[in-house]
Design brief:
six-stranded parallel beta sheet; alpha/beta; about 450 residues
């Protein structure tokens, strides 16, 4: 597959590196040559060019490209580049946008006719994940699969958890109500086996059904809590979307450093939102604003370091749930080690949504895990595919992947080794180290 990626920022570069590991024919274009400094071991062709120049697009080989992806910071550039690419012979185009109105279902056909096949808005996707994290404040990761019939939940195991110092095979006795698909310990993520011992501080990723989510909370030693008061620092587009998505009964304080922006935000916010002009990095200011009495603290400024340090401060002041937007991918591991709770990276979220278009199997969703070098996807088993021929334990699946659950006839079922996948089953697959391509052979 020949793929042209326009925009060598973190989204474009991360996607190019991900796809280059799968022997795809990747061309990465950017108008700034300095952005194209890609390590030599990645098989990526780079080209300096203007994505709205017909000559530069032709030079990059847009004619006959299977996929053209425009992810520069400029929405208008991305849209124009996709329209040109379609008319110059690209098979499919994807544009990154910031205007939420563009991605409304009623407008999709309009843009498709113009030559833009798919649109992604990272800010909207990030806001939805933040709201999801606030609904389950005890978890590190929460993702609804198969329309909410299955849940992927990641949680850090506390000292008081009943599963500490137990082997996984000790937990699998009795009714199968969950499946541990991954274990993160330190900087390493593994697909666990029955002989693995669970330690305090591990982050476990479970697949389960909605009715057994509370069992996961108890197993990992977490307490229940309700979110009624939220403090947000940074009046970004993500922040305004979060406010829009949260229920009206939640009382929200939004702290914005810019006085002019504070006034603009105050004019359009609902009555449950208080806009405060101030510096959310200042501990004394946060104490004066009574931050210790809020249930959740969400840091959404444009600076990753500010967001991380603000969440550390909030944690030290006793706020039970903190969420940080960390745009610098290199800082994610640092944020995790500081134990600040949920980390959001809108670029990784965007890459997840784009990546599913690259797969040949019937994939309805893909997610790159923020805290783990892993992906989770929903795939449909095709008739006579390899995955349907033997019970799961006899399939000899690669060590860097596991199946978490399946949907059959609308019913969610947690996976066990004796189970046989049937054609038409919707299956949740968890993969490490960009191994998603390997699973295609089993489902096609």
């Amino acid at each position: 597959m020949k793929i042209i990626i326009v925009g060598a920022g973190e989204v474009g570069t991360h996607l190019a590196k991900l796809l280059s590991q799968e022997n795809q024919d990747i061309v990465l274009m950017d108008a700034n040559e300095e952005n194209l400094n890609i390590p030599y071991h990645y098989e990526i062709m780079t080209t300096v060019g203007n994505p709205t120049s017909i000559a530069d697009l032709r030079s990059a080989g847009v004619k006959g490209a299977d996929m053209f992806i425009a992810v520069t910071p400029e929405e208008s550039v991305n849209m124009t580049a996709c329209m040109l690419a379609t008319n110059l012979g690209a098979e499919k185009t994807i544009a990154r946008v910031s205007n939420n109105e563009y991605i409304l279902p009623k407008n999709m056909d309009f843009f498709s006719k113009l030559g833009v096949d798919s649109l992604i808005c990272p800010e909207t996707l990030a806001a939805a994940e933040i709201v999801s994290a606030l609904k389950t404040p005890w978890s590190r990761q929460w993702w609804e699969l198969a329309g909410g019939k299955l849940i992927l939940v990641g949680a850090k195991v506390r000292d008081n958890a009943p599963i500490v110092n137990k082997f996984l095979h000790d937990l699998s006795k009795g009714e199968k109500i969950y499946h541990v698909v991954a274990l993160k310990r330190g900087d390493e993520t593994i697909i666990p086996h029955g002989s693995d011992l669970i330690l305090s501080g591990d982050i476990l990723f479970f697949t389960t059904t909605p009715g057994h989510v509370n069992d996961i909370r108890v197993l990992t030693g977490k307490t229940t809590m309700e979110i009624n008061r939220v403090t947000i620092i940074g009046g970004s587009r993500i922040a305004t979307k979060v406010v829009e998505y949260l229920p009206d009964y939640i009382q929200i304080k939004m702290i914005e450093k810019s006085k002019d922006k504070s006034y603009r935000l105050a004019e359009k916010m609902e009555s449950n939102v208080m806009i405060i002009n101030g510096d959310g990095r200042n501990t004394d200011f946060l104490i004066r604003e009574n931050i210790k009495n809020c249930d959740a603290f969400v840091a959404l400024t444009e600076n990753s370091e500010t967001n991380i340090l603000a969440c550390v401060t909030a944690k030290n002041l006793g706020v039970p749930k903190t969420i940080a937007e960390v745009e610098n991918i290199d800082y994610i591991q640092t944020a995790e080690k500081l134990d600040i709770g949920t980390v959001i990276n809108k670029k990784l979220i965007a890459v997840s949504h784009i990546y599913r278009f690259m797969l040949n199997a019937d994939v309805s969703n893909v997610k790159c895990m923020t805290f783990a070098d892993a992906e989770v996807a929903e795939l449909v088993a095709r008739p006579n595919s390899k995955i349907t021929r033997k019970p799961i334990k006899e399939l000899n699946l690669p060590k860097d992947m596991t199946l978490g659950g399946k949907i059959r006839n609308g019913k969610a079922i947690i996976i066990d080794g004796d189970m046989l996948i049937e054609a038409g089953d919707q299956v949740v697959v968890f993969c490490l180290n960009s191994a998603m391509r390997k699973i295609e052979d089993y489902f096609n």
